Amino acid sequence: MQIKVTRVSKKDTDKNGIQLVSKKYGKPYFNIGIQVEGDDAWYTTFANTKFEPAYNIEEGGTYHISVTEKPNPNGGVYKNFKMLTPDEVQMEADRKELEQLRAMKASAVTNVVSTSMETAQAESHITANDLDQF
Fold first, then answer.
1. For residue 24, how many C-alpha atoms fall within 13 Å in the half-sphere facing its CB?
2. Cβ atoms of 84 and 66 closer than 8 Å
3. The dihedral of CA 41, 45, 49, 55: what is its sign?
4. What are the strands, taking DSSP E only, across 1-126?
5. Cβ 83 vs Cβ 54: under 8 Å
């Protein structure tokens, strides 16, 4: 989905000033939070270096992201985001276009079936007297 960022928070330390280090990989990382236009919730992700796309998010910028939600034990929902690459953005656009084409095809099939049924019903009203006229 495409979003416009209204606020950004980038931190590499916890509330006690201690550097954030991945428990899984043992490497430092940046915790990145954003707020998007039309939503007061914070969306979060992390970056391992300052060269990653997520680290370079700026307020007022427009970006393509995917969002996963999971329950927060304290209530509410965690919203984690991932920056999409240009290829992923194109795949999402292609998927949406394919869905639209499928919907149009289903609608067209429904119209053809409906028209065929109406024609069949109209033809079924022809009586033997109508045939005698020919």
1. 2
2. yes
3. negative
4. 2-11, 30-36, 39-47, 62-71, 77-83
5. yes
Residue with tokens 């236009």: 37
> Rounded to whole angstroms, how far apart are CA atoms 99 and 114?
22
Condensed to tens digits (0 to 9), the pLDDT of residues 58-97 reads 999 999 998 999 898 888 888 999 998 888 889 988 988 9
Helix (H, G, I), strand (E, B) or coil at 50: coil
Q: Look over the chain and give the mean of its residue pLDDT values, rounded to a whole number.
A: 84
Amino acid found at 18:
I
Cα(124)–Cα(109) distance, rounded to whole angstroms?
22
Structure tokens of 102?
A: 């499928």
Entry pTM: 0.62
Amino acid identity, position 23: K
Say which residues have a Cβ less than 8 Å from residue 67's Cβ, sequence separation at least 6.
Answer: 1, 43, 79, 80, 81, 82
- For 79, the token pair is 């919203």
